[in-house]
Amino acid sequence: MKLLVRGTLTLAVAAIAPMMDAGLALAAPFAYVPNEKSGTVSVIDAATDTVVGTIKTGGKPRGLAIGNGGKALYVSDQSSNSLIVIDLEKQAVAERIKLQESPEGVGISPKGDWVVVASEVSNSVSFVSPQTRKAVFSVSTKGKNPEHAHFSPDGKWLYVSAEDADMVDIVDVDKRTQVNAVKVGDRPRGIGFLPDGSRAYVASEIASTVYAIDTATQKVVASIPAGNFSNGVTVHPDGKTVYISNGKDGTVSVIDVADNKISTTIPVGKRPWNMAITPDGKKLYVANGRSGSVSVIDTDSRQVTREISVGELPWGVVIQ
Fold first, then answer.
1. pLDDT tens for residues 259-284?
2. Between 188 and which of 161, 163, 232, 308 could a Cys-Cys bridge form, CB atoms 3.0 to 4.6 Å apart?
3. So what's the pLDDT on residue 3?
4. Residues linked to residue 297 through DSSP beta bridges, in sequence order
Protein backbone atom coordinates (compact mmCIF):
# COMPACT_ATOMS: atom_id res chain seq x y z
CA MET A 1 0.00 0.00 0.00
CA LYS A 2 1.35 3.41 -0.93
CA LEU A 3 1.71 6.12 1.66
CA LEU A 4 0.95 9.78 1.18
CA VAL A 5 2.72 12.32 3.37
CA ARG A 6 1.52 15.86 3.83
CA GLY A 7 2.44 18.21 6.65
CA THR A 8 2.82 16.11 9.77
CA LEU A 9 0.25 13.42 8.94
CA THR A 10 0.96 10.16 7.12
CA LEU A 11 -2.06 8.35 5.72
CA ALA A 12 -2.60 5.19 3.71
CA VAL A 13 -3.72 6.28 0.25
CA ALA A 14 -6.32 3.53 -0.06
CA ALA A 15 -7.90 4.66 3.18
CA ILE A 16 -8.34 8.28 2.13
CA ALA A 17 -8.90 7.99 -1.60
CA PRO A 18 -12.55 9.14 -1.31
CA MET A 19 -11.36 12.31 0.42
CA MET A 20 -8.56 13.37 -1.92
CA ASP A 21 -10.76 15.74 -3.95
CA ALA A 22 -11.59 17.65 -0.77
CA GLY A 23 -7.97 18.68 -0.25
CA LEU A 24 -7.31 15.64 1.96
CA ALA A 25 -9.72 16.93 4.60
CA LEU A 26 -10.66 14.19 7.02
CA ALA A 27 -14.32 13.24 6.73
CA ALA A 28 -16.29 11.95 9.69
CA PRO A 29 -16.23 9.63 11.47
CA PHE A 30 -12.66 9.66 12.79
CA ALA A 31 -11.38 9.09 16.31
CA TYR A 32 -8.29 10.94 17.55
CA VAL A 33 -6.11 9.57 20.34
CA PRO A 34 -3.30 11.58 22.03
CA ASN A 35 -0.32 9.39 22.94
CA GLU A 36 1.40 11.06 25.86
CA LYS A 37 4.72 9.21 25.72
CA SER A 38 4.96 9.06 21.93
CA GLY A 39 4.24 12.75 21.35
CA THR A 40 1.68 11.89 18.69
CA VAL A 41 -2.03 11.73 17.93
CA SER A 42 -3.28 8.53 16.32
CA VAL A 43 -6.04 8.85 13.72
CA ILE A 44 -8.55 6.00 13.66
CA ASP A 45 -11.08 5.46 10.88
CA ALA A 46 -14.19 4.70 12.93
CA ALA A 47 -15.79 2.90 9.99
CA THR A 48 -13.06 0.24 9.81
CA ASP A 49 -11.52 0.66 13.29
CA THR A 50 -8.02 0.89 11.89
CA VAL A 51 -5.29 3.47 12.41
CA VAL A 52 -4.92 5.41 9.17
CA GLY A 53 -2.56 8.15 10.28
CA THR A 54 -0.34 9.68 12.92
CA ILE A 55 0.00 13.38 13.67
CA LYS A 56 3.29 14.37 15.26
CA THR A 57 2.86 16.91 18.04
CA GLY A 58 5.94 16.37 20.17
CA GLY A 59 5.83 16.97 23.91
CA LYS A 60 3.19 15.30 26.10
CA PRO A 61 -0.21 15.56 24.40
CA ARG A 62 -3.09 14.81 26.74
CA GLY A 63 -6.51 16.55 26.69
CA LEU A 64 -8.21 17.22 23.38
CA ALA A 65 -11.38 18.53 21.76
CA ILE A 66 -12.67 19.16 18.24
CA GLY A 67 -14.05 22.53 17.14
CA ASN A 68 -14.49 24.88 14.20
CA GLY A 69 -17.04 22.65 12.54
CA GLY A 70 -14.79 19.62 12.80
CA LYS A 71 -11.88 21.40 11.13
CA ALA A 72 -9.67 21.98 14.19
CA LEU A 73 -8.30 19.65 16.83
CA TYR A 74 -7.18 21.25 20.10
CA VAL A 75 -4.61 19.31 22.15
CA SER A 76 -2.99 20.29 25.45
CA ASP A 77 0.78 19.82 25.74
CA GLN A 78 2.12 19.64 29.26
CA SER A 79 5.77 19.88 28.31
CA SER A 80 5.44 23.27 26.59
CA ASN A 81 2.48 24.61 28.62
CA SER A 82 0.58 25.20 25.42
CA LEU A 83 -2.55 24.36 23.47
CA ILE A 84 -1.73 22.83 20.10
CA VAL A 85 -4.11 23.73 17.28
CA ILE A 86 -4.17 21.13 14.52
CA ASP A 87 -5.74 22.06 11.19
CA LEU A 88 -7.54 18.89 10.15
CA GLU A 89 -7.99 20.07 6.55
CA LYS A 90 -4.29 20.77 6.06
CA GLN A 91 -3.39 17.89 8.36
CA ALA A 92 -0.75 19.90 10.18
CA VAL A 93 -0.06 21.71 13.44
CA ALA A 94 -1.23 25.25 12.78
CA GLU A 95 -0.35 27.00 16.01
CA ARG A 96 0.70 26.67 19.65
CA ILE A 97 -1.10 28.90 22.14
CA LYS A 98 0.76 29.67 25.37
CA LEU A 99 -1.15 28.66 28.51
CA GLN A 100 -0.63 28.51 32.24
CA GLU A 101 1.42 25.76 33.88
CA SER A 102 0.67 22.06 33.30
CA PRO A 103 -2.42 22.11 31.02
CA GLU A 104 -4.41 18.90 30.91
CA GLY A 105 -8.15 18.52 30.25
CA VAL A 106 -9.59 20.35 27.23
CA GLY A 107 -13.26 21.17 26.66
CA ILE A 108 -15.27 23.14 24.12
CA SER A 109 -18.48 25.10 24.66
CA PRO A 110 -21.71 23.93 22.98
CA LYS A 111 -21.66 26.93 20.63
CA GLY A 112 -17.97 26.47 19.90
CA ASP A 113 -17.08 29.97 21.06
CA TRP A 114 -14.73 28.87 23.86
CA VAL A 115 -12.05 26.25 24.21
CA VAL A 116 -11.18 25.70 27.87
CA VAL A 117 -8.06 24.11 29.32
CA ALA A 118 -7.59 23.05 32.95
CA SER A 119 -4.07 23.83 34.21
CA GLU A 120 -3.08 21.64 37.14
CA VAL A 121 -0.17 23.51 38.70
CA SER A 122 -1.73 26.94 38.13
CA ASN A 123 -5.07 25.84 39.66
CA SER A 124 -6.96 27.62 36.91
CA VAL A 125 -8.94 27.19 33.72
CA SER A 126 -7.95 29.16 30.62
CA PHE A 127 -10.62 30.35 28.15
CA VAL A 128 -9.27 30.43 24.60
CA SER A 129 -11.03 32.06 21.65
CA PRO A 130 -11.04 29.75 18.59
CA GLN A 131 -11.43 32.83 16.39
CA THR A 132 -8.40 34.78 17.63
CA ARG A 133 -6.52 31.73 18.91
CA LYS A 134 -5.60 33.59 22.06
CA ALA A 135 -6.18 32.95 25.75
CA VAL A 136 -8.69 35.68 26.65
CA PHE A 137 -9.03 35.13 30.40
CA SER A 138 -8.61 32.52 33.12
CA VAL A 139 -10.65 31.53 36.15
CA SER A 140 -8.97 30.41 39.37
CA THR A 141 -10.35 27.27 41.01
CA LYS A 142 -10.61 26.61 44.72
CA GLY A 143 -9.84 22.96 44.23
CA LYS A 144 -6.18 22.17 43.66
CA ASN A 145 -4.91 20.33 40.58
CA PRO A 146 -7.88 20.75 38.21
CA GLU A 147 -7.89 18.06 35.53
CA HIS A 148 -11.15 17.98 33.56
CA ALA A 149 -13.35 20.93 32.55
CA HIS A 150 -16.76 20.28 30.95
CA PHE A 151 -19.51 22.66 29.87
CA SER A 152 -23.13 21.97 30.70
CA PRO A 153 -25.21 21.34 27.54
CA ASP A 154 -26.63 24.88 27.69
CA GLY A 155 -23.14 26.37 28.04
CA LYS A 156 -24.03 28.29 31.19
CA TRP A 157 -21.88 26.31 33.61
CA LEU A 158 -18.41 24.85 33.55
CA TYR A 159 -17.76 21.92 35.90
CA VAL A 160 -14.12 21.41 36.87
CA SER A 161 -12.77 18.35 38.71
CA ALA A 162 -9.94 18.96 41.17
CA GLU A 163 -7.68 15.92 41.64
CA ASP A 164 -6.19 17.11 44.93
CA ALA A 165 -9.54 18.05 46.45
CA ASP A 166 -12.78 16.17 47.04
CA MET A 167 -14.86 18.69 45.11
CA VAL A 168 -16.12 19.79 41.73
CA ASP A 169 -15.75 23.52 41.12
CA ILE A 170 -18.64 25.20 39.28
CA VAL A 171 -17.88 28.24 37.14
CA ASP A 172 -20.51 30.70 35.91
CA VAL A 173 -19.33 31.21 32.33
CA ASP A 174 -20.99 34.61 31.82
CA LYS A 175 -19.73 35.96 35.14
CA ARG A 176 -16.29 34.42 34.55
CA THR A 177 -15.96 33.29 38.13
CA GLN A 178 -16.38 30.23 40.33
CA VAL A 179 -19.74 30.34 42.12
CA ASN A 180 -19.92 27.00 43.91
CA ALA A 181 -18.10 23.79 44.82
CA VAL A 182 -19.82 20.43 45.21
CA LYS A 183 -18.27 17.93 47.59
CA VAL A 184 -17.68 14.47 46.11
CA GLY A 185 -15.21 11.64 46.84
CA ASP A 186 -11.43 11.63 46.93
CA ARG A 187 -9.66 12.55 43.68
CA PRO A 188 -12.47 13.43 41.24
CA ARG A 189 -11.56 13.12 37.59
CA GLY A 190 -13.92 12.51 34.66
CA ILE A 191 -17.19 14.42 34.25
CA GLY A 192 -20.14 13.78 31.95
CA PHE A 193 -23.52 15.54 31.58
CA LEU A 194 -26.79 13.95 30.56
CA PRO A 195 -27.93 15.42 27.22
CA ASP A 196 -30.76 17.36 28.89
CA GLY A 197 -28.33 18.85 31.40
CA SER A 198 -30.30 17.63 34.41
CA ARG A 199 -27.43 15.68 35.93
CA ALA A 200 -23.65 15.52 35.87
CA TYR A 201 -21.77 12.32 36.67
CA VAL A 202 -18.33 12.58 38.31
CA ALA A 203 -15.89 9.70 38.82
CA SER A 204 -13.73 9.90 41.96
CA GLU A 205 -10.65 7.76 41.53
CA ILE A 206 -9.48 7.03 45.07
CA ALA A 207 -13.06 6.65 46.31
CA SER A 208 -13.81 4.29 43.37
CA THR A 209 -17.25 5.90 43.33
CA VAL A 210 -19.34 7.87 40.83
CA TYR A 211 -21.39 10.84 42.04
CA ALA A 212 -24.55 12.07 40.31
CA ILE A 213 -25.04 15.81 40.75
CA ASP A 214 -28.45 17.43 40.28
CA THR A 215 -27.52 20.50 38.25
CA ALA A 216 -30.57 22.49 39.34
CA THR A 217 -29.71 22.25 43.03
CA GLN A 218 -25.98 21.61 42.53
CA LYS A 219 -26.13 18.80 45.08
CA VAL A 220 -25.15 15.13 44.98
CA VAL A 221 -28.26 12.95 44.60
CA ALA A 222 -26.61 9.53 44.20
CA SER A 223 -23.34 7.78 45.03
CA ILE A 224 -22.62 4.74 42.88
CA PRO A 225 -19.82 2.29 43.81
CA ALA A 226 -17.78 1.59 40.68
CA GLY A 227 -14.65 -0.39 39.83
CA ASN A 228 -11.24 0.20 41.34
CA PHE A 229 -9.83 3.65 40.47
CA SER A 230 -12.82 4.91 38.49
CA ASN A 231 -11.74 7.86 36.34
CA GLY A 232 -13.20 8.38 32.84
CA VAL A 233 -16.86 9.26 32.20
CA THR A 234 -18.81 9.13 28.93
CA VAL A 235 -22.58 9.49 28.52
CA HIS A 236 -24.59 7.76 25.80
CA PRO A 237 -26.33 10.21 23.44
CA ASP A 238 -29.74 8.84 24.44
CA GLY A 239 -29.07 9.80 28.08
CA LYS A 240 -29.98 6.35 29.41
CA THR A 241 -26.49 5.02 30.06
CA VAL A 242 -23.24 6.29 31.58
CA TYR A 243 -19.89 4.56 31.04
CA ILE A 244 -17.10 4.62 33.64
CA SER A 245 -13.53 3.46 33.07
CA ASN A 246 -11.83 1.77 36.02
CA GLY A 247 -8.06 2.18 35.93
CA LYS A 248 -6.91 -0.56 38.28
CA ASP A 249 -9.52 -3.12 37.26
CA GLY A 250 -9.05 -2.76 33.52
CA THR A 251 -12.81 -2.54 33.07
CA VAL A 252 -15.64 -0.26 32.02
CA SER A 253 -18.72 -0.06 34.25
CA VAL A 254 -22.12 0.54 32.65
CA ILE A 255 -24.53 2.61 34.75
CA ASP A 256 -28.25 2.60 33.97
CA VAL A 257 -29.44 6.15 34.59
CA ALA A 258 -32.98 5.07 35.50
CA ASP A 259 -31.86 3.53 38.81
CA ASN A 260 -28.24 4.73 39.02
CA LYS A 261 -26.94 1.18 39.33
CA ILE A 262 -24.22 -0.69 37.47
CA SER A 263 -25.76 -3.26 35.17
CA THR A 264 -22.67 -4.54 33.33
CA THR A 265 -18.89 -4.60 33.72
CA ILE A 266 -16.83 -4.92 30.53
CA PRO A 267 -13.14 -6.03 30.57
CA VAL A 268 -10.86 -3.85 28.42
CA GLY A 269 -7.10 -3.16 28.33
CA LYS A 270 -4.68 -2.11 31.06
CA ARG A 271 -5.20 1.25 32.76
CA PRO A 272 -8.30 2.42 30.86
CA TRP A 273 -8.44 6.19 30.96
CA ASN A 274 -10.65 8.56 29.01
CA MET A 275 -13.27 7.52 26.45
CA ALA A 276 -15.53 8.75 23.66
CA ILE A 277 -18.68 7.48 22.01
CA THR A 278 -19.72 7.75 18.37
CA PRO A 279 -22.51 10.28 17.64
CA ASP A 280 -24.92 7.44 16.85
CA GLY A 281 -24.11 5.82 20.21
CA LYS A 282 -23.19 2.47 18.66
CA LYS A 283 -19.50 2.28 19.61
CA LEU A 284 -17.52 3.33 22.67
CA TYR A 285 -13.76 3.90 22.32
CA VAL A 286 -11.63 3.42 25.45
CA ALA A 287 -7.99 4.57 25.69
CA ASN A 288 -5.90 1.97 27.55
CA GLY A 289 -2.84 3.82 28.81
CA ARG A 290 -0.68 0.86 29.81
CA SER A 291 -1.73 -1.34 26.90
CA GLY A 292 -0.97 1.25 24.24
CA SER A 293 -4.34 0.49 22.71
CA VAL A 294 -7.95 1.54 22.24
CA SER A 295 -10.75 -0.93 23.01
CA VAL A 296 -13.84 -0.65 20.83
CA ILE A 297 -17.05 -1.63 22.61
CA ASP A 298 -20.30 -2.44 20.83
CA THR A 299 -22.82 -0.66 23.05
CA ASP A 300 -25.67 -3.02 22.11
CA SER A 301 -23.89 -6.28 22.93
CA ARG A 302 -21.66 -4.59 25.54
CA GLN A 303 -18.69 -6.56 24.23
CA VAL A 304 -15.25 -5.50 22.99
CA THR A 305 -15.17 -6.02 19.24
CA ARG A 306 -11.69 -4.68 18.45
CA GLU A 307 -8.43 -3.80 20.18
CA ILE A 308 -6.56 -1.12 18.20
CA SER A 309 -2.84 -0.58 18.77
CA VAL A 310 -1.89 3.11 18.98
CA GLY A 311 1.09 4.99 20.50
CA GLU A 312 2.52 4.85 24.00
CA LEU A 313 0.35 5.99 26.92
CA PRO A 314 -2.85 6.94 25.09
CA TRP A 315 -4.65 9.50 27.30
CA GLY A 316 -8.12 9.67 25.79
CA VAL A 317 -10.25 9.78 22.66
CA VAL A 318 -12.32 12.35 20.80
CA ILE A 319 -14.55 11.57 17.82
CA GLN A 320 -15.32 13.91 14.96
1. 999 999 999 999 999 999 999 999 99
2. 161
3. 36
4. 284, 304
